[in-house]
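Review form for a predicted model. The reviewer records the input and the model, then writes brief findings.
Reviewer: anonymous (R2)
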Amino acid sequence: MGIVLSVMGACGAAVCIWATVRLIARSKSRRWIASSVAVAGVLLLAYSLSYGPFVALSESGRHLSNSQASAIYPIYWPIYTIEDRGPEPFKSTVRWYAHLWRGMVSQ
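Model under review:
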């Protein structure tokens, strides 16, 4: 699992570097900038939405072992921090979303 996460992180970093170099080289193309912003937005949304399944699977103990969950935890640390100590509108939204997934896995 650790190797998979390392490879995914390296690939993500490579894509970010490639996109940055391409954006700088083609800074006059508005379409490229809009596409880059859209891709970044979709990736951020996918990251945020993947928090619920991770919480549900890690807390159930049936699907992820403690060592696997602790290896993946740093990826979701920013969202966990918002759930734990963030401003109230964000905190309640993250808690609601995690609770929604907890109910799905426990059934």
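Findings: The chain has a mean pLDDT of 80.
Further findings: Residues 22 and 28 are 11 Å apart (CA to CA).
Recommendation: see findings above.
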